[in-house]
Structures are given as structure tokens and as C-alpha cells.
Amino acid sequence: MNEGGLKVSELARRCAVTADAVRHYTDKGLLRPERDSSNGYKLYRAADIARVRFIRRAQQLGFTLTEIGGILAQADKGRSPCPEVRDIVQAKTEQNRRNLQALAALQARMEAALQLWQTLPDKSPDGDSICHLIEAVADVAGEGLTLGLPTGSKLNRLPYGTKG
Question: Is residue 132 part of a domain?
Fold first, then answer.
């Protein structure tokens, strides 16, 4: 460690992140280096190594930098951020579940469309149609998709999912 602290590149190296990441965390207020009065360099404390590693772990759990900033602010004030962390992860888990359901519905629609399209020829636009493949998949009053298959086909009605 340097006499007055760690420079950006040294902190980055020790944390296995880029110098740009350290600068970004600093710009976002997650790190608060001191300035070297002799040259103006930003100097980081040894404790910032653990702080950067914490930021990276939190990002791997899906926390945004804004959320991480709130967690760090709580901890810096000596308050436990754990209740907030649980609440955030609970909300994100529920949102991820909804997103996965919507993605599964999209996957089913795409697979059903591909199955239908195997039976349809290619056509050129004719003024009334742009791409008959997409047009063969009609939205029925937002309730689901009709794929132009025979009535009663389990692939004929698929959940439309959520708007995204």
C-alpha cells in the first residue's frame, strides 16, 4: 500500500475490477477517497477493498448501485441494512418469478408460431399483407393468441403474457 493510500489502479487490481469500475463507484458516491494534496490523486483506504468487494457481491445478487448506496449509507450510520436487504431481495425475487412466467409464455408463443409457420409458404407483401407469417398470429382482444390452427388445438390458444 502507498504511504497515503491506494491509487485507483491499485484498488482496482486488488479487487479484480477495472479502474473504470472504481471511478464509477466513486462518481456514484459509493466510495469516498481522499485527495493527495501534493498531486490531486484520489487515494483510497484499505477498507475500500472490502467495500468494493461488497459492491460486487451485491451486484451479483441483482442490487442496483442506487440500492447498494442505500445499504452502504445505513451501514455507515451504524444501522443494520439487513431488513432493507431482505425486502429488496424479496421484491426482486417476486418480480423475477413474474418475468420468468412471461418469458415462458413468450417461448411457448414463439414455438407454436414456428410450428404453424412450417406449414405456410413464403409470400411477398401484397398491399394488404406485410408478412403473413406474423399476421397469422392474431391477438384476440388481449386474451391470448390464435395461431390459425384447427379449433380445439391446444396450441391454438396460448397465454399472451404481460406487456413489456
Answer: yes
pLDDT in tens, 85-119: 999 999 999 999 999 999 998 898 888 889 888 98
All cell numbers assigned to 15: 479487487
Q: Residues 127, 133, 138, 142: is their CA dihedral positive or negative?
A: negative
Instruction: Please name which of 3, 78, 77, 69 lies closest in space to residue 41, comparing C-alpha atoms.
Output: 3
Taking the whole predicted model, whether its pTM rises above 0.85 is answered as no
- Cβ atoms of 11 and 21 closer than 8 Å: no
Residue 164 within any structural domain of the chain: no
* The CA-based dihedral angle spanning residues 21, 25, 27, 32, taken in that order and rounded to the nearest 10 degrees: -130
Looking up residue 42, the CATH number of its domain turns out to be: 1.10.1660.10
